[in-house]
Design a protein that fits this description.
The complex is a heterodimer of chains A (434) and B (235). By secondary structure, chain A is of the alpha+beta class. In chain A, 54% of the residues lie in helices and 17% in strands. Chain A contains seven helices and twelve strands. In chain A, the strands form three sheets. Chain A has a five-stranded antiparallel beta sheet with strand order 2-1-5-4-3. A five-stranded mixed beta sheet of chain A has the order 7-9-10-12-11, covered by helices on one side. A two-stranded antiparallel ribbon of chain A has the order 6-8. In chain A, β11 (412-414) and β12 form a beta hairpin. In chain A, α5 packs parallel to α6. Chain A is rod-shaped and about 155 Å long. The relative contact order of chain A is 0.06. Chain B is an alpha/beta fold. Chain B has two domains: 7-125, 3-Layer(aba) Sandwich (Rossmann fold), CATH 3.40.50.2300; 133-227, Orthogonal Bundle (Arc Repressor Mutant, subunit A), CATH 1.10.10.10. Helix content of chain B is 40%, strand content 21%. Chain B has helices at residues 15-27, 38-47, 64-73, 89-97, 110-125, 159-170, 178-184, 196-212; strands at 7-11, 31-35, 52-55, 79-84, 102-105, 133-136, 139-142, 147-150, 153-155, 175-177, 217-220, 224-227. In chain B, strands 2-1-3-4-5 form a five-stranded parallel beta sheet, sandwiched between helices. Chain B has a four-stranded antiparallel beta sheet with strand order 6-7-8-9, with helices on one face. A three-stranded antiparallel beta sheet of chain B has the order 10-12-11. In chain B, α1 (15-27) crosses α5 (110-125) and α2 (38-47) packs parallel to α3 (64-73). The longest helix of chain B has 17 residues, at 196-212. The radius of gyration of chain B is 19 Å and the shape is elongated. The chains are: A alpha+beta (434), B alpha/beta (235). Chains A and B meet through α3, α4, α5 and α6 of A and α1, α4 and α8 of B.
């Protein structure tokens, strides 16, 4: 907007400049024309002698800076004038004292506009007015315009900056708040009283919106807590009654196992949604050593893999620190190793690796049958299980939880095509080593 | 006799759960005191001496884990076991961070509950157990050096195996469940789908049995393990 005002002002000044320039030109032309008609009268009355006197009189009053006057005879001898030589390249044109055509003349850097004629009998005649005063005036005007423009621009910029700073400052407050909320701090609000203008209204609306989001979030948490409570309490009663049953030990054990499975599904679903809800948020995350956690979980699974006839291997670079929740990361690594062990057979390799870098890379790869084609696209969805693997225990929640935990940590997950087996890569935002 | 009976406070509003908790407490030879609301529980904790306090979470009047700090501030030395339907790993970690000594999710197994209570009672008894040398017959554990000897012969164990045997030693003679091992030895609070812990215990058990010539770690009917080097292998 400031730029628009500046452009408008500058255009106005340019127009003023054009008008002034035209006016000055017209005035010079009028002066010349008046002089020419004076000379014409003298010439009409007494021919060359009359004109010679008139020119001599003008020449005496006029310095060559202001105007040129010259009358010569047919031999080039000067009869009258304030210069003594005919300007070299100038060719006479036109008749007697008519105001047109005009010639442009330049002598020693001074520019003139006037008439160069050859009067009857071969008398060269020159009358011209210097453009210097005009150019001087215009130069001065240009200078003034330039200063005014510079001043105006500075003022406009300053005013624009002040207004922008006030606006940007208030937008900045809202942006900072949005960042905090996006970072997971749902209790963040714009502090202080809100002004009566549109910004104040916006701030009030943002605060009201956040109140609502926070209330909904609390309600969701209460609901899942309530579900947990309301379902687990009756399950607990069933469990206690089972414990009191005598005989039928096998059935009781099977029911217990089924109940444990039910609770596990239920926990996984709640874990997935709570990790998803906290996705990318910082609260609750602390610096943890991804390398150390991976090594611990690997160590937990290594003997099991060996017992199953697999060839487990860990390549873990130390010092890959991330902002995370230890138990969740351990659960992620555990789910991946668990899957790798579940879906491979004796002689297969299972490799866990961590490489530290700009983004720490955690990779679990095996040489088993890989992901069946029928579920490749949906492998991270809840309850996805391959037809091929119906016999393998599980509910199809392991990878869904892995994905939710990765997202919770801002980690990117990919399934690069491997020549053999299953391979998953997770890129974690890195932290400087504490 | 009554003066020696350890009292355990149970704060639980669900009658069935309270009955199961009381039964477990009696099984351990202790006396249960049941309260049904947050306020009553908190008041009772301040009125009498309890060895262990079992607190539920979603109680009428409040959340049991908020009571822990108040109970401690009032000077009680009771250990707190939270038993709650809020049973996810995140809930457990929250409870432990807020000062619970142990956390058991509902629905719970009676054996698991007894094992947890027993471990807490035991912890209460051996407040000053920083003996460097722990001996079970011909089995010796040196805590500082982190070594295990059987009949004066060194038994090489991995660092994790040592932690495992140290935890077993602290609960010698008692049933220790897989979940307890996973939580206390591996500091993991989720339920792995495979029984990874069994493989570790199996390896340690074979090592110790080979060195000792008799079983040192016994399996207890699918509930868990009992570390008892002096137990008669036949019995």
């Amino acid at each position: 907007m400031a730029a628009g005002i500046i452009v408008l002002s500058l255009s106005a000044m340019a127009l003023q400049y054009r008008i002034t320039a035209t006016a000055l030109e017209t005035r010079q032309a009028e002066l010349l024309s008046a002089e020419l008609s004076g000379f014409a009268q003298f010439y009409e009355q007494r021919r060359i002698p009359g004109l010679r006197e008139a020119i001599a009189a003008r020449a005496a009053l006029t310095t060559p800076d202001e105007g040129l006057y010259l009358l010569q005879d047919r031999n080039g001898t000067t009869l009258a004038g304030n210069i003594d030589r005919w300007p070299g390249a100038l060719a006479p044109e036109g008749a007697l004292f008519a105001p047109a055509p005009l010639s442009e003349i330049a002598i020693d850097g001074t520019e003139y506009l006037g008439v160069a004629r050859e009067l009857p009998g071969g008398f060269p005649f020159l009358a011209a007015r210097a453009w210097t005063p005009v150019t001087g005036t215009l130069d001065e005007l240009r200078g003034t315009i330039l200063w005014v423009a510079a001043g105006l621009s500075t003022l406009a910029l300053l005013a624009g900056w002040l207004v922008a700073r006030a606006v940007v400052g208030r937008i900045g407050r809202i942006n900072a708040l949005a960042d905090r909320v996006a970072g997971g701090d749902l209790s963040a609000r714009l502090p202080g009283p809100q002004s009566a203008d549109e910004f104040g209204a916006l701030e009030r609306h943002v605060n009201q919106m956040l109140d609502r989001i926070e209330a909904l979030n609390r309600a969701t948490h209460r609901l899942s807590d309530a579900i947990a409570h309301e379902l687990r309490t009756p399950l607990n009663r069933i469990r206690q009654r089972l414990d009191r049953l005598e005989g039928q030990d096998e059935d009781v054990a099977a029911i217990r196992e089924d109940m444990a499975g039910t609770v596990r599904i239920f926990d996984s679903l709640l874990d997935i949604s709570s990790a998803e809800a906290a996705s990318g948020q910082r609260p609750g995350l602390v610096p943890v050593d991804l390398s150390a956690i991976a090594a611990e979980v690997y160590e937990l699974y290594e003997p099991l893999a060996e017992d199953r006839g697999l060839i487990p291997e860990a390549r873990i670079e130390p010092g890959a620190w991330v902002l995370g929740e230890r138990n969740l990361i351990a659960q992620l690594v555990s789910n991946l190793l668990d899957n790798a062990i579940k879906f491979t057979g004796p002689g297969d390799g299972v490799t866990l690796s961590v490489t530290a870098g700009e983004r720490h890379m955690l990779t679990v790869a095996d040489t088993g049958p890989g992901v069946p084609d029928d579920i490749r696209a949906t492998v991270f969805d809840r309850f996805t299980r391959g037809e091929r693997d119906r016999a393998v225990a599980g509910h199809g929640l392991g990878l869904a939880l892995v994905q939710a935990i990765a997202a919770r940590h801002g980690a990117k997950l990919s399934l690069p095509a491997a020549p053999r087996g299953f391979r998953i890569e997770i890129a974690w935002p890195s932290l400087p080593r504490p | 006799m009554t003066t020696q009976t350890a009292r355990i406070l149970i704060v639980e509003d669900d009658a069935e759960a309270a009955a199961a908790l009381s039964a477990a407490v009696r099984d351990l030879g202790c006396e249960p005191v049941v309260m049904q609301s947050y306020e009553d529980g908190l008041r009772a904790a301040g009125l009498a001496e309890f060895r262990v306090i079992v607190f539920d979470r979603m109680l009428p009047g409040g959340d049991g884990i908020d009571a822990i700090a108040k109970i401690r501030a009032a000077g009680s030395t009771a250990l707190v076991l939270v038993v709650s339907a809020l049973g996810r790993a995140a809930n457990k970690i929250e409870g432990l961070e807020k000062g619970a000594d142990d956390y058991l999710a509902k629905p719970f197994d009676a054996d698991e509950l007894r094992a947890r209570l027993r471990a807490l009672l035991r912890r209460q008894e051996m407040v000053v157990m920083d003996n460097d040398l722990v001996t079970f017959g011909d089995l010796q554990i040196r805590m500082k050096a982190r070594t295990v000897h059987v009949k004066n012969a060194h038994v090489p164990v991995s660092p994790k195996e040592f932690e495992l045997i140290a935890y077993f030693a602290r609960n010698a003679g008692e049933v220790v469940t897989r979940m307890q091992l996973l939580e206390n030895v591996w500091n993991l609070h989720f339920d792995p789908q495979t029984n990874v812990v069994d493989v570790h215990v199996g390896r340690l058990r074979r090592k110790l049995e080979q060195a000792a010539g008799h079983p040192v770690i016994h399996t207890d009917r699918g509930v868990g393990y009992v570390f008892d080097p002096q137990k008669d292998p036949v019995g």
